[in-house]
Amino acid sequence: MASRQDKLKAGLKIGVVLSLVTLVSACGARNDGEPRRGLFGPRENTTPLEQLGPEDIYQLAEFELERNDDPEEAARLFNEVERLYPYSEWAKRSLIMAAFSYHADRDYEAARSAAQRFIDFYPADEDAAYAQYLLALSYYDQIDQVGRDQGITFQALQALRTVIEFYPDSEYADSAALKFDLAFDHLAGKEMEIGRFYLRREHYSAAISRFRVVVEEFQTTTHTPEALLRLVEAYLSLGLVEEAQTAGAILGYNFQSSPFYDDAFNQLTGQNLAPDATGESWLRDIWRQTVVGDWL
After folding, report:
1. N or C: which end of the chain has fewer CB within 10 A?
2. Residue 92's closest CA among 108, 81, 103?
3. What share of the chain is helix, strand, coil (3-state, %, to 5)?
4. What is the pLDDT of residue 51?
């Protein structure tokens, strides 16, 4: 299925080509004997935008976006359509295309601003779903390495959730759901990195608190098996064998084929222990929930 941005642009592609000769002729005629300069020639010689109609400016922006690969200039021209013809149908089209152009130019703040304005002005429009998706992407594409501040990740999650919940039947819902899972996994990765840092420095209580967050709040992520292994390590180091055994039991029940379980099993048996849900701790509650199915 074609993406929304492709649909937005495809409708005028033929128009751009067909009108090229007409626009060049109209804007390029000179009476002073100088060589003719077309509308798509050097920018310093182009016709003033105020003398062009909204469709012509829109086509200029399309040309910059597709032929010149200049999304920054395209965004400027799309914005000019909105400025000069604020209540036209072309202004509405230009606003969503400005958001797309800004995103293509990696000007994510401007992309968010344009996308949000489209949502505010045209909440019932068929492109509102795409505007929300672009807004979410403008956060998602800024997610850095897990070692950095993750505030942008929370914003990406919130914006992606809006796509999923408000536009569940749109063509962007599945992609938003996938990116939501990846961003969620990213947050778990942040907790794991900090936990490993504390574990290496033998700050076991601090490490446990980070791994606990992963096990309790990010159970569906790919980091859960390792978090359980690290809990086994940390609890054994503190001499809290029941907690270590319970973490190993959860790991073995849910991720027995994982290499993390093999490591945890060897650590436990190396101290004459076995994976076993025993004692009363927060891990025993996780065992009851994930294995026994008792959520009450």
Report:
1. C
2. 81
3. 70, 0, 30
4. 84
Number of domains in the chain: 1
Type of residue at 137: L
Largest CA distance in the chain: 98
Among 26, 19, 29, smallest CA distance to 55 is for 19
Kindly report the average pLDDT of the chain as a whole number.
85
Helix axes 108-121, 128-140, angle to 10 degrees: 160
Give yes or no for residue 175 having a pLDDT over 70.
Answer: yes
C-alpha–C-alpha distance, residues 290 and 52, integer Å: 65
CB of 202 closer than 8 Å to CB of 237: yes
Tens of pLDDT, residue by residue over 77-112, are 999 999 999 989 999 999 999 999 999 999 999 999
Task: Answer yes or no: is 192 within a domain.
Answer: no
Return the CATH number at 87: 1.25.40.10
Q: Indicate whether 66 belongs to any domain.
A: yes
Instruction: Find the domain containing 126 and state its range.
Output: 1-28+38-142
In a domain, 181, yes or no: no
- Residue corresponding to tokens 């569940």: 168
Q: Residue 38: is its pLDDT beyond 80? A: no
